[in-house]
Amino acid sequence: MRKQLELVRSGTAELPPGCEITYETEAIHLLRQLFPQRPDRGQYFYEDFRQDHGTRPLDSETYHAGYNPRTLGQGNGGWVHFVSAMGDLSGRHYWC
After folding, report:
1. Whether 53 and 90 share a structural domain
2. Domain check: are 60 and 78 in the same one?
3. What is the pLDDT of residue 51?
4. In degrees rounded to 5, what are phi and psi of residue 95?
5. 50 with 70, same domain?
6. DSSP of 15-43, one letter per residue?
7. In this predicted structure, what is the pLDDT of residue 66?
8. Is-contact 45 67, C-beta < 8 A?
9. Which domain holds residue 62?
10. Average per-residue pLDDT in the chain?
11. What's the confidence (pLDDT) of residue 2?
12. SS3 of residue 57 by DSSP
C-alpha cells in the first residue's frame, strides 16, 4: 500500500482514463502512520521530508521527528556519510 500511495503522491500511478485522485496532505501523513514500522523507516522519513520541504532534514530535525541520526548513520559511517549516500552532500558542506 505504501508503494501505491507514493505512486499516487508522485503523480505516476496508473489510473483508468477519466479518473483522478484528490487527497488532503493530512490524509497522506495519517496513511503513512498506519503502515507497519520497517528498519528503513528513517530513510523514508528523510526522503519524505526532502520531498515535502524541498531540502534535506538537518540532524536536529531528524532527531526531533523521533529518529536518532547516529542510528541512521550506522553502517553508513555516521550521519554525514548517510546524508552523502542519500545524495545530499556537495562540495565542502559538511555541516549537519
Report:
1. yes
2. yes
3. 92
4. -70, 160
5. yes
6. --TT------HHHHHHHHHHSPP-TTHHH
7. 81
8. yes
9. 39-96
10. 78
11. 66
12. coil
Tens digits of per-residue pLDDT, 30-52?
776 665 455 577 888 899 999 99
Q: What is the pLDDT of residues 50-76, one digit of tens each?
A: 999 999 999 999 888 888 888 777 666
> Number of structural domains, the chain?
2
* Cell of residue 15, nine digits: 489510473
d(Cα 18, Cα 24) in Å, to the nearest integer? 20
Using a 10 angstrom Cβ sphere, with 0-12 exposed, 13-18 middle and 19 or more buried, the burial of residue 69 is buried
Radius of gyration in angstroms for the set of CA atoms belonging to the chain, rounded to a whole number: 16
What whole-number distance in Å separates Cα of residue 47 and Cα of residue 35? 16
Q: Let me know whether 43 and 27 are in one domain.
A: no
SS3 state at 79 = helix
Do 24 and 43 share a domain, yes or no? no
Rounded to two decimals, what is the model's pTM? 0.53
Asked if 44 contacts 28 with a C-beta cutoff of 8 angstroms, the reply is no
Length of the chain: 96
